[in-house]
Write a structure and sequence with these properties.
The protein has 540 residues and is mainly alpha-helical. The chain is built from 26 helices and 5 strands. Among the domains are: 116 residues, Rossmann fold, CATH 3.40.50; 178 residues, Tetratricopeptide repeat domain (Serine Threonine Protein Phosphatase 5, Tetratricopeptide repeat); 80 residues, Serine Threonine Protein Phosphatase 5, Tetratricopeptide repeat. The chain is globular, with a radius of gyration of 26 Å. It comes from Noviherbaspirillum denitrificans.
């Protein structure tokens, strides 16, 4: 039974991840003695991920050295990047490495705490109690952020700093990040500067200043700050990401690729290699793309962290590089469970069609194309649509290819990477002359719909404006630009005419879709705030 001092631990669910049975059992015993009754054990990253997907844990204690394929840091990166790990879960890394702090400080996804072996019950209790204290201090802020009330979170930060000065730096970090989400880089800069006056070695605050510069369009300043961080700490991987973002914004794609390659050298993970592969492919550097995606597959082979898109990306690279036989071999090696996804099977068939053309077999290519088309269904703004369009061009069905590509661009016209890849499909297929008609025409068409809806709203023709966007969403249900416009115009309608519960439901549906399509996007965060303000006024 839990003692009084350990009463807060009595309701915690915990997971211990270690490849050594004796170590797992030792930690489990110590947690039990502290009053934590529910302790699950996992011996591999895959087993741990399965446990976490089945239910939430309050505490995860994970060994850094798990196996040759995936270490604890890489598992944490996967969990956080895939949004599998709830924000409330305390992740404690256990390591025998005395220099693990260098690894943790460099990583994009950091554990809540780390402990150096050997562990004792007293040390575990101290660390868990401290994390629980921190959770309590930040609870109101995190609660606001979970509700998408970013402005409310900023206000809670101001209150918490007064009430909980012990956690002031953690609170300032949350506040500055929230201000950036609200599109207030100058106010965020003030917070980062204040944090640096307290401690000038806070790398996250220096990086925050780079983010402020980038958000303000001060690209060279953002680049200079990122380079300064790297000069002080060459292992800080997010600084390389900033260099890549600046380079892409400036149209310097090779510089972006160089920065991402350097980030992979710091953290040689599947995610980093995938980022390199994506940029290399978009810039036409097929050799680097091949190396990167091949490396990604090796990182994740036989693991739950594997992503089917990696295999498809490498197969497409082989086709583009004139290696159809290698593409066919790779596609035939796909795990059987991948075929359970129509999206995977559609893209696989589309790449197969291209590979068969490369092998000179038009009949097999046409058969694969028809299968891809039947599986793809309605056009979406994704890799399947791009591969399908490319397959259509490869077998001489230019009109179908143009139609598929146009629909894909219309499906998410504000997705700059999709638009760039659509242009690449035309270039690779020898159809660059169609870019104005297919890509630019699709962009103009959607922009015209949004512009017309806005014009109708300005003329106080609310119902006609909303109907225009609703019709657009029938054919483009995941177009982020149209979803944002629809949410905004419905809220404007209610600000003029009062509360409408059907419209509230619609806006919530739009924003839920946007959260999935654009996680962490600043414009979506602003729309949530606009919704709260509008509903508050409408109810008065």
């Amino acid at each position: 039974m839990a003692t009084i001092i350990n009463q807060r631990l009595a309701h915690l669910r915990s997971l211990v991840v270690d490849d050594m049975a004796a170590m797992r059992q030792n930690i489990r015993t110590q947690l039990g003695q502290l009053g934590i009754p529910h302790v699950d054990q996992a011996s591999t990253p895959d087993e741990a991920i399965s446990y976490i997907r089945r239910g939430a844990y309050d505490v995860i204690i994970c060994d850094y050295n798990l196996n040759r394929e995936t270490n604890g840091q890489q598992m944490l990166e996967f969990l956080r990047s895939q949004n599998i790990l709830p924000a409330s879960t305390m992740f404690i890394m256990v390591t025998a490495e005395t220099n693990y702090d260098l690894v943790a400080s460099a990583a994009e996804f950091q554990p809540d705490a780390y402990m150096v072996k050997p562990l004792t019950g007293g040390k575990l209790l101290e660390r868990i109690e401290r994390l629980l204290d921190k959770q309590t201090a930040l609870r109101q802020i995190i609660g606001r952020l979970n509700l998408k009330d970013v402005a409310g979170a900023v206000a809670e930060c101001d209150r918490a700093i007064q009430a909980q000065p012990k956690w002031s730096l953690d609170i300032m970090k949350l506040k500055a990040n929230a201000l950036l989400e609200l599109g207030k880089p100058e106010e965020a800069r003030t917070v980062y500067d204040a944090a640096l006056k307290l401690r000038d070695d806070l790398v996250w605050a220096h990086y925050g200043l780079a983010r402020c510069h980038f958000a303000s369009g001060q690209l060279e300043e953002a680049k200079a700050v990122a380079q300064g961080i790297i000069e002080q700490n060459a292992q800080y991987v997010m600084a390389y990401d900033m260099l890549a973002k600046v380079a892409e914004a400036q149209g310097k794609e090779q510089e972006a690729l160089d920065a991402l390659n350097r980030s992979y050298e710091v953290i040689p993970s599947a995610r980093r290699s995938r980022m390199v592969g994506d940029v290399a492919y978009r810039t036409g550097n097929l050799e680097q793309a091949r190396t990167a995606f091949d490396r990604t597959l090796k990182h994740t082979r036989g693991s739950l962290t594997a992503q089917p898109s990696d295999l498809l990306s490498l197969a497409q690279v082989h086709v583009d590089a004139g290696e159809p036989h290698a593409a066919l071999q790779l596609l035939s090696s796909a795990p059987k469970h991948y075929a359970e996804s129509d999206a995977f099977s559609a893209t696989q068939a589309a790449v197969l069609a291209q590979a068969h053309i490369g092998m000179g077999d038009l009949e097999l290519a046409q058969h694969a194309f028809e299968r891809a088309k039947s599986l793809a269904g309605e056009a979406r703004a994704d890799g399947a649509a791009l591969a399908l369009a490319k397959a259509a061009f490869s077998i001489g069905r230019d009109d179908e290819g143009a139609s598929i590509l146009s629909k894909a661009v219309r499906a998410d016209h504000e997705n700059t990477r999709l638009v760039s890849l659509a242009r690449k499909v035309l270039k690779d297929s020898g159809k660059e002359e169609l870019a104005a008609e297919v890509v630019d025409g699709a962009l103009d068409q959607v922009n015209a719909i949004v512009a017309e809806a806005n014009a109708l709203m300005r003329k106080a023709q609310f119902d006609e404006s909303l109907q225009k966007l609703e019709e657009a969403l029938q054919g483009m249900p995941e177009n982020t630009g149209v979803l944002l416009a629809a949410a905004q115009l419905h809220l404007l309608w209610m600000s003029q005419k009062g509360l409408n519960l059907d419209y509230v439901a619609r806006v919530n549906n739009y924003l839920a879709k946007l959260d999935t399509l654009m996680p962490g996007n600043e414009r979506v965060a602003k729309m949530y705030r606009f919704m709260r303000e509008t509903l508050s006024r409408a109810k008065k």
